[in-house]
Amino acid sequence: MHPNPPFERYPSEQRVVSTDKGGILLESFCSAQRIEACTLDPQFGVYARYKSLYTRKESLVQLAETEGANIVLALIHGNHIIGFGLLVHPEPEERWSRVGPGIMIELKAIEVCRDWRSTGIARHIVEMLLSHPRLEDMIVYLVGYSWTWDLDGTGKSAQEYRQMLFRLFEPFGFREFQTNEPNICLKPENMLMARIGSRVSTDIQNRFKWIRFGVEP
């Protein structure tokens, strides 16, 4: 059981942001029904050396039905998805769930279709994902795997893309943490970042430190 009320009890928030390509509607805590009513831009697809993390709307619908999930959509024309962000609790078999019930939540994806990149949408999605006061009681983490990055679409090397992610997330309080998690250790560009809420106890922070290296304190 989570120590606080689950995210889905909170109403969806809407914001309109301006970009040099036009206005974008952002919505948080999107329900499965809301996502069902939207269309997913076809640029979330499969390319020669890159595949979007989620290429089907049904995948987002399924995640929206998960307890404690926050799905933020970036929309044009009211219901056309051109960007999204996901906060989801780790699966029980993942090491991060062992830090404590309801403590860890993964920033599982931030994605913007190619035509709308470099417009600041990703920053607005992250801001909306992190605006909930409950996150001060939690550790928000993200893992960066270089084989999931759109290096062709951005024209960046893996190291340049990594630095771009740092520039995106560090202003929101994320910092890099070391770990022996096998998938993260496969490539030097891969990374673990986390934002530790201001009300997270020292005991939980220490537990997070040990779990990062697969040790049960």
Automatic annotation (TrEMBL):
Keywords: Transferase. It comes from Desulfatirhabdium butyrativorans. It comes from the Bacteria. InterPro entries: AcuA, Acyl_CoA_acyltransferase, GNAT_dom. This is N-acetyltransferase. Gene3D superfamilies: 3.40.630.30. GO terms for biological process: acetoin catabolic process. The lineage of its organism: Bacteria, Pseudomonadati, Thermodesulfobacteriota, Desulfobacteria, Desulfobacterales. The keyword Transferase applies. One of its GO terms (molecular function) is acetoin dehydrogenase (NAD+) activity. Residues 33-198 form the N-acetyltransferase domain.
